[in-house]
Amino acid sequence: MSVPPAEPAVKQQVKPRVERDHVVIRFAGDSGDGMQVAGMQFTNESAIAGNDLSTLPDFPAEIRAPAGTLAGVSGFQVNFASHEIFTPGDDLDVLVAMNPAALKMNVGDLKPNGILIVDREQFNEQNLRKAGYESNPLEDGSLAKYQVYPVDISKLTALTLRDTNLPARTVNRCKNFFALGLVSWLFQRPIEPTQKWIASRFQKRPELVEANQRVLQAGYHFGETSELFASAFEVKPARLEPGTYRNITGNSALALGFVVAARKAGRPLFLGSYPITPASDILHELAALKEFDVYTFQAEDEIAGIGAALGAAFGGAIAVTTTSGPGMCLKAETINLAVSVELPLVICDIQRGGPSTGLPTKTEQADLLMALYGRNSESPVVVLAPATPADCFSIALEAVQIAVKYMTPVIILSDGYLANGAEPWRLPNLEELPDIRVEFRTDPRGYYPYLRDPMTLSRPWVIPGTPGLEHRIGGLEKEHLTGNVSYAPVNHEQMVRVRARKIAGIAREIPPTKIIGPSTGDLVVLGWGSTYGPIEAAVRKAQAEGKSVSHVHVRHLNPLPSDLGEVLRRFRKVLVPEMNLGQLVRVIRSEYLIDAVGLNKIQGLPFKEAEISRRIEQMLEG
Amino acid sequence: MNVLGPAQKLTRKDFVTDQDVRWCPGCGDYAILAQVQKVMPELGIPRENIVFISGIGCSSRFPYYMNTYGFHSIHGRAPAIASGLKITRPELSVWVITGDGDGLSIGGNHLIHALRRNVDVKILLFNNRIYGLTKGQYSPTSEQGKVTKSTPYGSADYPFNPIAIALGAQATFVARSIDVEAKHLQDTLLRAYRHKGTAFVEILQNCNIFNDGAFSSLTEKETKADTQLVLEHGKPLIFGKNRDKGIRLRDGKLQVVELGQDATESDLVVHDETDAGLAFLLSQLAAPDFPTPIGVFRAVTRPTYEEIVRGQIQTAKSRRPPDLDALLRQGDLWTVS
């Protein structure tokens, strides 16, 4: 690595630095305390410092739960390292708790001897009572196994801004930047990116720019000059693949992927969507990108969102709809219509805890079987799942590519963790990305609406406005070639089979399955979606301990890679960790008659590496 | 939109498909289909630029019989599909065919939102006040107390007034016509086509199998002059076999008056398609106390949804020319070499 991390703003380094190879930190506070901002900015600073990183935002569904209560606690966890990492980290090295409720909800995850920074003044009688503490944990010895640093964050913030005329409420809202400044010093992060961010975030309120920047700086200075910390820590840059990097969340990566895909296809992008957590950010992001011929249609409901998208696809646009589980239920009928009329359409399901409204802000991957089978009759669709936040960009491109080539709906199964989690993303070279070929048929000679390409079995995309090719499509069963309504028994079976064959044939597009580790052995851990990170971390650890374990990750859930069964059979045992009650494992067992076993966690949170490691050990012992 | 020259003038036959029309013999839909096929050449645009989109129900088979582009979609969702198409392809003439069940029951939400958005689609709602395709259950426009297979003791719910719904949804063009009034229907369809914005046309249509004669007093020669009130912009509201009855506004209410007895022509309401209040009052007129208005209740112009959105796209492009590379490079970057 030749480019050194940016220098911190303040250079009077006097305290020694202790080197660490990775640190897991969580900022926790009231949902109004700005913990998501503090976490995201710390992430950004760490990225610029050259670390590999992974984040886990965790916030309540309520916009503002009652202040100081356990229900209102919001957290943001960052794992940053001088080596490649795959998860936001299991246990915390550092916890910043802005009030007693945040402490209570999070301290259980702090490692023994971990650093605990709290805002001392918030541990008053009222807040302690709201959090259900009988006595003050800062005084009753219950935190003895941690390094506790009580800091007067609120008071020091107020002191920093005492010469301003800002109302007390506004001053109080700056305190997240004091905490961020302090932690930035503690880990020797550059604070310029945050200074810049503050300047642009509050550009219309210069008084807030100044206040927040001063408080950030004050927090940083406080770390250096106060007697509190004997030393700062240093996490050296990670050795990442050469290139230009930025941070990206899964939702942003999907949005950018769709814009790039539509440009590569030379068509406008149409998003039909209805706001729903945790998918709405894709709508927000695309709504701001109109200069790229992006149409965003905030529909009256989920059904109209996908309906409008299908209408746009009929007209030749790159059509996308975005939602989460409850919205998927409502979209099922239109997905089936898209299956029947064979138009390209991309459906993003950013999965969250269910059933019903469930856990809107928490992650889960329990919509797999719905995506595969949740429609009436025989309704094959393509199902893809990104592995990491940055992988969402590639998956968006691939989904569009498959949709237009095979004239089919494609479901992308992301989840809340990928959607809001961030990681460094190496910017792709736009010229090197393949063009997406979109061909509208215009030749009337020999044309039939359901004349199929002998290779892909897809029907021609003919858009209204094309002379001589006027035709009608619809959800009634069609005669195999002409597309005319047909109730003929044999024709129906033929159509059901050809639709299934078309989707199954897409397996030819899937590269050979990559086995991370030995290609045969005692155990293979098979995963899909966002479990990629913790599985990879756990498998690498087991491999380092000399165990015979490999990792296989599938991004294509339908069709599955054609070599998958054969690959899995090379291992004595197959373990499938999933954030559901066992959905891929059911598919694997029925598809390949392999005795795969599941490891299931349904807590609205991603797996910890240790949870998978434990199961790997058990499997190897048994 | 491409315009055809005189030499390319299409005829009704150009809009007929090779598909057998499968409505019940005697169905009002045949008459509507014939008028629509007659009107299409008058639009002066090529066939390939016309799209018919429907939902589910008897009326929704319509696109199969029109030799244009067509999409027979799913129950109630045609306005949504049509919106997505029209927004991205404004040069197309997009028509939605729906019914009282499709448009006002399962698809009610999409209908009202299409109307308020003012996407330039033409929505023809065939209202026969009954469910035909599912064989005779009452519909959301059936009169209260309707005895059907699903309501052997009479329906308990009160019907929708489609015109009032369209007006309430702020539709910019609201009209009513009747399946068998060939000339009136043609004129109304042409007006709808020429209107820029969402056009809503309720077409009263007879289902001779499950609800025969629902509109017979409106359509029979002997009675129709007394039961129809033909709305014409700028003209007084006169009706009756001898054109001797009119509509007067008194104390905020419309009333029927006998010309030459209770009132003179100058006392009558003059129809004004831009008057939202009058349109609503007229929407409430119904038998037996009043004649049923047909014609254009409301026609006003305002920018369409797709014009506004396209304007935003143009503005965005002029402010910030599209640059994919810059888009990817948003935020803080760092380089690893």
Could you walk me through the main structural features you see in this protein, from its secondary elements to its overall organization?
- The complex is a heterodimer of chains A (622) and B (337).
- With 622 residues, chain A is an alpha/beta fold.
- Chain A folds into three domains: 17-234, 3-Layer(aba) Sandwich (Pyruvate-ferredoxin Oxidoreductase, domain 3), CATH 3.40.920; 246-429, Thiamin diphosphate (ThDP)-binding fold, Pyr/PP domains (Rossmann fold, 3-Layer(aba) Sandwich), CATH 3.40.50; 515-621, Rossmann fold (3-Layer(aba) Sandwich).
- Chain A has 20 helices and 23 strands.
- In chain A, helix 12 (325-341) links the parallel strand 12 (318-323) and strand 13.
- Chain B is α/β, with parallel strands linked by helices.
- Chain B has helices spanning 28-43, 78-88, 100-106, 108-117, 162-168, 182-194, 216-219, 221-227, 276-283, 305-319, 324-328, and strands at residues 50-54, 69-72, 93-99, 121-127, 173-178, 199-204, 228-231, 238-239, 245-250, 253-258, 292-299, 334-336.
- Chain B has an eight-stranded mixed β-sheet, with helices on both faces. Chain B has a three-stranded antiparallel β-sheet with strand order 8-9-10.
- In chain B, a hairpin with a 5-residue loop joins strand 8 (238-239) and strand 9.
- Classes of the chains: A alpha/beta (622), B alpha/beta (337).
- Chains A and B meet through helix 1, strand 9, helix 9, strand 11 and helix 11 of A and strand 2, helix 2, helix 4, helix 10 and helix 11 of B.
Which bin fits the share of residues in helices of chain A? 25-40%
Strand order within the widest beta sheet of chain B? 2-1-3-4-6-5-11-7
| CATH level-4 homologous superfamily of the largest domain in chain A | Pyruvate-ferredoxin oxidoreductase, PFOR, domain III
Mean pLDDT of chain B: 96
* Tally of helical segments of chain B: 11
Order of helices and strands of chain B: HEEHEHHEHEHEHHEEEEHEHHE
Number of strands of chain B: 12
CATH class placement of chain B:
Alpha Beta
**Please, how many domains of chain B?**
1
For the largest interface, the chains and their residue counts are: A-B, 74 and 60 residues
Main beta sheet of chain A: 7 strands, mixed
Oligomeric description of these chains: heterodimer
Roughly what is the average pLDDT of chain A, rounded to an integer?
95
First-to-last CA distance of chain A: 44 Å
CATH class of the largest domain in chain A: Alpha Beta
- Poorly predicted segments of chain A: 1-12
What is the fold-level CATH name, i.e. the topology of chain B? Rossmann fold
What composes the largest sheet of chain B?
8 strands, mixed
User: What would the principal axes of the Cα set say about the shape of chain B?
Assistant: globular
- The SS-based structural class of chain B is alpha/beta
